[in-house]
Amino acid sequence: MLKIGIHDPDCIALHGLESLLMLRFPEAQITKFELLSNRSWKSPGYDVIITVTDVPADTIQYILGTAAAPKVIVLTRTEHLDEAIRYFSLGVSGYISKEESVETILTAIESVIVEEQRYISKTILEKIAEFFISKTNRRSPEALTYREKQIAQLMIQGKRVQEICQILRLQPSTVSTHKNRVFKKTGTANIIELKAKLDTKESLIPSMLEDSGY
């Protein structure tokens, strides 16, 4: 059974969302709680935790570092770039603006739960991209090889190492090596920076997907 935990310190902020989630996932067990901290976290078997407050980074890191860690989705009242980057660096699965429509929020949550994809609100992603573009040297990064470009595009699409291995038919060690080279050559430290740095309009993946049967 799907277990969803809703961290709602105000006890009312997510009341409507709770009801909508019950309709979207009728078989799920949905629990609300007010406190979320290292001490209060008992790892009660949640598959997903949804929070609307500024949870300390060390708490998120602690939860995601536990055995059978849940996916964490942050519904934010603000759109601070440093906050978004911090949360994604820690490994949250979703960072969604509360200004989005209810249907968009539900679709985002569903994509994290059902499709196991990471999600970030378009408005926030655009701000992050603009920020890094304005701060980044406009010169082209050190040239990537064709294979590195393929892997970079799959990374930006949210694919994990194992998925990239399956799509490109490579060993995990080979993918990891190329992944490290991509970050080094582009001077980036995470996927958000990489997306802002690279021009990925020309897709190098479709032909590979066809050849691989995906």
The count of strands amounts to 6
Low-confidence stretches are 205-214
Largest sheet entry: 6 strands, parallel
Structural class of the secondary elements?
Answer: alpha/beta
How many alpha or pi helices?
10
Query: How many angstroms separate the termini?
Result: 29 Å
Offer a few descriptive terms:
alpha/beta, six-stranded parallel beta sheet, disordered C terminus, about 10% strand
Please explain how this structure is put together:
- Strands 2-1-3-4-5-6 form a six-stranded parallel β-sheet, sandwiched between helices.
- The protein is globular.
- It has helices spanning about 15-25, 55-65, 80-90, 100-115, 120-135, 145-155, 160-170, 170-185, 190-195, 205-210, and strands at about 5, 30-35, 50, 70-75, 95, 120.
- Helix 5 packs across helix 9.
- By secondary structure, it is an alpha/beta fold.
Strand-helix topology:
Layout: E1 3-7, H1 15-24, E2 29-33, E3 48-51, H2 57-64, E4 71-76, H3 81-90, E5 94-97, H4 102-113, E6 119-120, H5 122-135, H6 146-156, H7 161-168, H8 172-186, H9 191-197, H10 206-212
Parallel strand pairs: 1-2, 1-3, 3-4, 4-5, 5-6
Helix pairs in contact: 5-9, 6-8
